[in-house]
Design goal:
- There is one protein chain.
- The protein is of the alpha+beta class.
- Helix content is about 40%, strand content about 20%.
- It has 17 helices and 18 strands.
- The strands form 6 sheets. A 5-stranded mixed β-sheet has the order 6-8-7-3-9. A 4-stranded antiparallel β-sheet has the order 12-11-10-14. The chain has a 3-stranded antiparallel β-sheet with strand order 13-18-17, with no helix packed on it.
- The longest helix is centred in the middle third of the chain and has 24 residues.
- The protein is globular and about 75 Å long.
Length: about 475
C-alpha cells in the first residue's frame, strides 16, 4: 500500500490475539481481519522441530496412511459387555501380593495419599494384613508388586486398584477378538477408587464379589452380552458424555439387563442388584472405560501412526501411549483439576488428577463430547452450553476425524472428535481436555469435587521426539 493509498483509504487492520478486538473495530466500520495465530505453547525447540518434520513431506504421507488405518480400527470396533470374572481368573499372574493400579508405572514411595490408602484397603480386603496399620507397613516393605492396569488389558477409575478377588467386567471387541477388563463401579460416597478403605468400603467390595458379580455374569451370559456402541449413541442424544455424566447410559443398560436378570436370579437378589445400579448414576462409567480399552488396544503398534492409544494418570504422573511407539510410556507431572468443590472443601484439599478413565477421551467421549452434555459443563465449571460446544470444537483441532456413529445433536449431528494426534497437539499447542472427579489428597476421605484437567504438553513433546526418531531409523 502506497502512502497516497494509505491517506485516501486508511489502514487495514490485522488483529493478532483476541478476536473480540477485531469485532469491536468492525462494528465501528473499520476494516479489520483476525489472524488465527497463537505462539507455540512448547518451549522445547527439538520437539517443535520434530512435530514440524512429522507434518511435512513423505513422512507426513506415511503418518497419514497409518492414521487412516488406526481410525478405521476404531470405527469398525464392535465392543460387547459379555461377562464378569474374578480378576485372578482373567489376568495372568495376578495372585498373592500383586496390586494393579491406575496410570503409568509407579512405586509405593511415589504414590499419592488416596492411592496409598486404596492399596492399604485392598491388602486388608485380600487378607494379606489384619488391619490398615499392618497393610501400610506391608505395602512399604517391598513385598508388594505394583503394576499398571494397562499392562494387563485392564483399566480402573481414579486409584484403579485391582487385586485377585475383585470381580471384573469383561468387554470383548468382536471385530478383533480382544478383551478388556474393569472393576464394577462401587457407587457413590466413600469408595476405594477415591482412596476410601474403612469397613464400609470393604463390605461393599465383598458384596460385589459375592452377590452382584455372579448375578451380573449369569445375566450377561444368558442374554449373550450387551452391544455398547448403540448405547453410547443413544446416551449422547440424552445428555451424557460418558465421563462425568452417565445417567442416561446407566438407565439404558439397566433396561437391557433387567428382564434377563429378573429371570435368572432369585427375586430378592435381582431386586437388590437392580436397586444398586439404579442408585448409582456412575455405574456405566466403568463399562465405558472397559469399552474404550477394548477399542484402543487393536490400534496399538501401527508403524508410523501418531494416534494416542492410551491416556492415564496415577496422581503423580500423567502418561500416554502412541500407536507408532508401541507400549512405550511418555510421562510428565500430572496437573491439578479445575472445577467445583463439594460444600466444606476447597482446592487446598484436592489431590492431583488420577485414574485410567481418560481412556474414554481417547475414543472421543468425556471432555471431547462436552457439547452433548451442557449439564456437565456447568458442573465442572465450564459455564454455558456454548462453552461446552467450544470445548468439543477445540478438541476437533487435535483429532484425526469425527465418529460418524456417535453424533451430537447440539452440533448439527457432527460426530465426536476421534483419534488424538500428537502432531496436531504440538503444532496447535492445544492439549486434550479431560472431565474428572477430584479426590481428597489424604487417604480414606474420598471425592471432594469434579472438574476438568488438561493433559500436560510434556507427554506429547516426548512422543513426537520418539516417533520422529523411529521413523528416521526405519
Amino acid at each position: 500500500m502506497s502512502a497516497s493509498d494509505l491517506l485516501q483509504k486508511g489502514p487495514r487492520v490485522i488483529g493478532v490475539g483476541l478476536p473480540g478486538f477485531v469485532d469491536d473495530l468492525n462494528t465501528q466500520g473499520i476494516d479489520a481481519s483476525a489472524l488465527d495465530w497463537r505462539p507455540p505453547a512448547s518451549k522445547n525447540t527439538a520437539a517443535l522441530e520434530a512435530a514440524e518434520a512429522l507434518s511435512a513431506g513423505d513422512v507426513a504421507g506415511q503418518i497419514s496412511s497409518a492414521n487412516a488405518q488406526a481410525i478405521e480400527r476404531m470405527h469398525t470396533a464392535d465392543p460387547v459387555l459379555c461377562d464378569v470374572q474374578l480378576a485372578a481368573d482373567v489376568i495372568e499372574g495376578l495372585g498373592e501380593h500383586k496390586v494393579l493400579h491406575a496410570g503409568p508405572p509407579i512405586e509405593w514411595d511415589h504414590m499419592c495419599g488416596p492411592m496409598q490408602g486404596a492399596v492399604a484397603g485392598a491388602i486388608v480386603l485380600e487378607g494379606w494384613a489384619k488391619n490398615l496399620e499392618a497393610a501400610f507397613k506391608l505395602a512399604n516393605s517391598g513385598k508388594i508388586t505394583f503394576e499398571p492396569n494397562h499392562h494387563h488389558n485392564a483399566v480402573g477409575p481414579m486409584t484403579g486398584i485391582v487385586t485377585q478377588s475383585m470381580p471384573l467386567m469383561v468387554v470383548e471387541n468382536r471385530t478383533f477378538g480382544n478383551k478388556s477388563y474393569c472393576a464394577i463401579n462401587e457407587g457413590l460416597g466413600k469408595v476405594m477408587r477415591f482412596g476410601g478403605n474403612d469397613d464400609s468400603v470393604l463390605e461393599r467390595l465383598r458384596w460385589l464379589e459375592s452377590t452382584m458379580g455372579p448375578l451380573l455374569a449369569d445375566t450377561l451370559l444368558a442374554c449373550e452380552g450387551v452391544d455398547l456402541k448403540n448405547i453410547i449413541s443413544r446416551g449422547l442424544s440424552m445428555g451424557d458424555e460418558m465421563h462425568q455424566r452417565n445417567v442416561a447410559c446407566t438407565s439404558l443398560i439397566m433396561r437391557e439387563l433387567a428382564p434377563t436378570m429378573a429371570r435368572v436370579g432369585d427375586p430378592d437378589t435381582a431386586s437388590e442388584v437392580l436397586a444398586f445400579i439404579a442408585g448409582n448414576d456412575q455405574f456405566f462409567l466403568n463399562v465405558a472405560m472397559a469399552m474404550g480399552k477394548a477399542i484402543m488396544d487393536p490400534v496399538r503398534d501401527i508403524g508410523g501412526s501418531s494416534i494416542v492409544t492410551a491416556m492415564c494418570r496415577n496422581g503423580t504422573e500423567f502418561g500416554i501411549r502412541v500407536s507408532g511407539c508401541g507400549d512405550q510410556w511418555f510421562t510428565a507431572p500430572v496437573e491439578m483439576p479445575r472445577g467445583l468443590y463439594f460444600p466444606g472443601f476447597t482446592e487446598k484439599d484436592a489431590n492431583p488428577d488420577m485414574g485410567d478413565s481418560t481412556i474414554v477421551e481417547t475414543i472421543g467421549l468425556g471432555g471431547f463430547a462436552m457439547a452433548a452434555s451442557p449439564a456437565v459443563a456447568g458442573f465442572v465449571g465450564a459455564g454455558t452450553a456454548a462453552d461446552a460446544a467450544a470445548f468439543t470444537n477445540q478438541m476437533a483441532e487435535i483429532t484425526w476425524s469425527r465418529n460418524p456413529e456417535w453424533t451430537i445433536p447440539a452440533l448439527d449431528f457432527d460426530g465426536v472428535p476421534t483419534g488424538i494426534d500428537i502432531c496436531k497437539v504440538m503444532n496447535s499447542g492445544i492439549t486434550p481436555t479431560i472431565n474428572t472427579g477430584i479426590a481428597h489428597r489424604e487417604p480414606g476421605i474420598g471425592q471432594v469435587g469434579a472438574g476438568v484437567v488438561n493433559a500436560p504438553l510434556g507427554c506429547f513433546e516426548q512422543a513426537c521426539l520418539s516417533l520422529h526418531e523411529r521413523l528416521n531409523a526405519s
